[in-house]
Write the C-alpha cells for this entry.
Amino acid sequence: MTKVKYEIEINAPIEQVYEYYTNPDNIKEAWPQDIVKESHSLSNSKNEEGSEMKVKGEYMGREDEMILQVTDKEQNKRLITEQKDGPFKYWKSVQEFNGSQDITHIIHSIDYELPSSGKIVNFLSGDGANNKIEKGLQQAAQTVKQKLESQSS
C-alpha cells in the first residue's frame, strides 16, 4: 500500500474551507485537468455518510472512472471517502480539518494500491502513479487556497 500526504493552511474560516473542499462538484475545478475530467455527486445528499460520487478522469494513462463512497464524516473536522468501484485495487482519501475563524489547516492523505494486473499496470509503474497523485493533491490544495483566499480578501 502506498500513502500520499499533503498539508496546507488556508486563510479562510473552517466552515467555508470544509464546504468547498468536500463538495464533489468542486473536485474537477481543483484537480489538474489531465487527471480529473469530471466529478459529481450520485446521491441527493452531498457528502453524507453512505453518499456516493463519480470522478471521471485519466488514471495511469487511461480514461476511467471511480465511484467513491463517503465512509466517515464529521462536519468541519473530517471526511473519508473510499473507492467502491474503479481502477485501483484500493483507494481511501482522508481529509482532516482544524483551525479557527481565520485559518484552516488541512491534512489530506490518500492510501492506494495498484492492481497486480490490468490496464492500469500496463501504463504506469507505482512511482509514476505516486508522482501523479502527489502532484494532483498538491495542485488541488493550492487551487482551493487561491480561490478561497481571494474570496476572503
About this structure: Residues 126-152 form the longest helix (27 residues). The chain has one domain: 2-152. The first strand starts at residue 2 and ends at 10.
